[in-house]
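Troubleshooting log. The previous run stalled partway through. Resubmitting the same three chains, unchanged.
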Amino acid sequence: MEAVGAIVALGLVGGFLALTGLPMRAAFNGQVHECLSLTGDAYRQHSCQGLLRGFENQATFDGLIAYFNFMPALVGIFVGAPLVARELERGTHRLVWTQGITRLRWISIKLFLLVIGCAIIAGAFTAAMTWWRSPVDQVQGRLLPLGFDFEGFTPTAYALFAFALGAAVGTVVRRTVPAMAITLLGFLAVRFPVEFLLRPNYLAPVTTVTAFTATAGSDPRADGRGDWILDGGLMDSTHHRLSNAELSQLYSTASNGAGNTKGGADAYIQAHGYLSYVDFHPASRFWTFQAIEAAIFLSLAVLLLAFTVWWVRARSAG
Amino acid sequence: MDIAQVPQTIIFYLEPRSGVAPYMQLVRQVQHALRLGMLRPGDQLPTVREVVSHLAINPNTVLKAYRELERAGLVASRPGQGTFVLRALAGPTAADQTALGAKLDSWLDEAHGAGMDSQAIEAFIAVCLRSHSREEIA
Amino acid sequence: MEALRARRLSKRYGDTWALRDCTLNIPPGRVAALVGPNGAGKTTLLHLAVGLIAPTAGDVEVFGWSPRRQPTVVLARVGFLAQDRPLYRFTVEEMLALGRRLNPRWDDALARRRLSAVGVPLHRRTDKLSGGQQSQVALALALAKRPELLLLDEPAASLDPLARREFMEGLMEAVAEGGLTVVFSSHVLADLERVCDYLVILSAAHVQLAGDTDEMVARHKLLTGPRCDGESVGKVHSVVQALHTDRQTTLLVRTNGHIYDPSWTVSDVLLEDVVLAYLRAPGVHALPEPQVVSDSEWIP
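Second attempt completed without errors. Output:
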């Protein structure tokens, strides 16, 4: 049952990825690809910024792909939650837990095989997403959430966590449908706080500070493609970071005083010694972050699996 | 199971509401068959399995009945072969039957004369039988 | 070694005792029936015996082993057929494959022989079978693991008379093959004498009476006589049930020897009458249980 459902779901996902991935490659392989190796004037001559933006907006289906974050949750909902809950609900636990092998062995074998199955499915999903994302990765890198969440170890770790969560919830709740709902909520309640609150802090961000120049805009990095930018802005000569209020005040002062200075507001800001700063995680941290995040979810999965085994073995289930 | 397929000498039946324990019903049916000559020495009783699948009865009950018959010396079980009749039970001879019948007949006339109907006579005989057997025990 | 032994076995759910101070010894080779109204604790006792639930107090042993502490040993020896015969929505063939994987002592030939004898199609899904066929599948699965003790929870409750008869026939045939002790629960009293030789009456979470059925029937008598309070009888025998009219008193008693008082008419009772009398008087307990005459009378 679960295997058939998983194959159908994977087939649908694969179909969607193939249908969108091939045109995306066609769009990428022309000028967009060339732009990636250009810098400076050549970059500007080919109006690369516009081309890349256009590619990102049209080809990457950002809004849709974001929903793929639910894919690992599906494993928990449809494989994990019913695992024990359905037995208890239909009374078949009284059949299967009274056979010649103990229920400790039964649950251990079931969990082991399904963990392997889920890992294989999640691996296939990761491979498909990595292929699909590869042109986008060349433009955006893969440390940003939409790349990070679908490549490397994380999809497998999420899926195993979701499976273990579903199994544990189903075992305790004993009803399939409520267990499915709780599994989804529980998955999101862990998954998103980790992404938004923990992940930016796995390592201290790198901060780059340069003198403010009009051409560089607010990004002082020489080649920052693929970095994960957390924050950026202006600071004064004492390295005090300007708040939004201070910024708007600065700009209005700069515009008012612009008459006195050549080059307008930018020149004014430059002349007064303001600095640009950017907090970011360099693209090279991808695998470190992957390892940290996967370790968090896999540890949770192991705890939940151990809990499930203990509960099934120790608790009464008449 | 088709009764015709069973190569047996006696077919057991159970009366669920007779008040007689099932094993005793089987014992009595064998005794009855022995008295009437339906079972003769050397005959084989149905195997426990045959009785069980015919009556859906507890095999322990059948075993208990056969043990009871064995204890009474009526049958013997040969391991691996089955249970066989050892001796017949003597019923009353034909002459005895006639004489007893005549006595009972005249007694029944008397009872009817005393105003007893058939049901009253049956109840009376049952009470007499019970107290008679109690005296034998005591 | 008793097939099933319980000592002060108790199970509580919240504030309610599902089973309280249950003490029982069911000898091997017996076919024992657990009777009692719904909610009397029959299912609880069976679930405790197979280790599905853990006792609140007291203990239970199967051939001397604890179902919770030594599940591997117990599960290998016990077959269990739960109420409503839960089965997966598999084909019968797939159910057999499952049994094979889950049971080290699995006897596939036995399962197939039983199923073909009752005409269950192996390729059909279990939820497409009749109730009687489902029960036969569940029984075949339970027997193919070659249990020494078979526990059945209301095995015939939802079956029509013919299917019930066929089921009991199959069960009794399995007993006839030897080496099997059976404990089954039932709230149907008809036909009990035919299939069980040991009886446990459970009522309101307590064991009221347990023992050999023939002995149980032999010891209980119905006394009919002129109206009285039955006190003199009660001094020697246990009065289970007393019914009075203006003129007459009818007592169902568990005798302790002969009844010599000639004012009583003594008659035999049916097993069913004994059970009903106890169930109507949940306060009456007849413990300790009657002694088994001799174990040697039974299949070892």
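Takeaways: The first strand of chain A starts at residue 206 and ends at 211. Residues 2-203+284-314 of chain A form one domain.
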